[in-house]
Design brief:
By secondary structure, this protein is of the alpha+beta class. The chain has one domain. It is 34% helix and 28% strand. It contains seven helices and eleven strands. Strands 4-8-7-5-6 form a five-stranded antiparallel β-sheet. Strands 1-10-11 form a three-stranded antiparallel β-sheet, with no helix packed on it. Strands 2-3-9 form a three-stranded antiparallel β-sheet. Helix 4 packs antiparallel against helix 5. It starts with a helix and ends with a strand.
């Protein structure tokens, strides 16, 4: 019995040592640093239970921008149009006859833009949509147009105050290619994300589904968690400025860790 207990202890210690060595390696070199807010790092629904255990996990929230020539939409599917050539460049193999049965997932490097030109364009599009809805209501004050105006106004306010400002801009199988392309831009973050292509038989086009970030949650260590004491989840319909600011770094393995947090007054 003692033999098995000792073996289990050795395995546990070895696993912990491996994890700690990975953390240390990741933090040997800083690749990126961003100061995010509640807009990009939101609280989990079970924050109380998590905090009592080991700390709070903050989830990263990123988006795709509204297509260039399309009207503003706060709800965009996390997929981008692509073609065979680009998918091959990204490292995917092209299927034969049964394109609809395609099911590959790869980890790629993603470039994300934080609080830059993309977000400014989203705010402008949301404002234009609200103005259009207001003019339509003024010209035809129907119940339907009034509801449309209210929805557009809420969407505009959320875009200015609540919505994430972290936008996907490009995927690549090469970290160096993205790092070279966006060198010197402090608001560009390069991370790893899982992507899955598929063929849409309706419009006969390929799409790249952006499933999720490889690391999409960041542990808020106990010493920092006091800053979020007594903070409750905001109802989805409520518009409220972010209540905290978090300084996050990404290391050699493109894994994040928190180095500071402040509660906004």
């Amino acid at each position: 019995m003692k033999k098995y207990l000792l073996l289990g202890l050795c395995i546990l210690l070895g696993s912990n040592a491996l994890v700690l060595s990975g953390v240390a390696y990741n933090r040997m070199e800083e690749k990126s640093q961003l100061t995010l807010t509640e807009r990009e790092l939101f609280l989990p629904y079970n924050q109380g239970a998590i905090k009592e255990n080991s700390g709070i996990l903050l989830r990263l929230k990123w988006r795709l921008p509204t297509p260039e020539n399309a009207p503003y939409s706060p709800y965009s599917p996390k997929e981008i149009k692509t073609d065979e050539e680009e998918l091959i460049t990204l490292g995917f193999s092209i299927p034969g006859e049964h394109k609809s049965e395609w099911a590959q997932t790869r980890e790629l490097y993603w470039a994300l833009e934080f609080d830059g030109d993309i977000h400014k364009k989203e705010v402008k599009k949301a404002e234009d949509a609200y103005r259009t809805a207001t003019l339509e209501y003024q010209e035809n004050p129907s119940k339907r147009n009034k509801q449309y105006q209210k929805r557009s106004q809420t969407a505009f306010e959320k875009e200015k105050v609540n919505n994430s400002r972290l936008f996907f801009i490009q995927a690549s199988k090469s970290y160096d290619a993205l790092a070279s392309k966006y060198a010197g831009l402090p608001n560009i973050l390069i991370v790893k994300g899982l992507s899955k292509p598929y063929f849409n038989s309706s419009d006969k086009r390929y799409y790249l589904g952006l499933k999720r970030l490889s690391v999409n949650e960041i542990l808020l260590p106990m010493p920092y968690s006091e800053a979020l004491d007594n903070i409750e989840l905001i109802p989805k319909k409520e518009i409220r400025p972010p209540r905290y600011t978090v300084v996050v770094k990404w290391g050699q393995r493109l894994e994040p860790w928190i180095v500071g947090i402040n509660k906004n007054e």
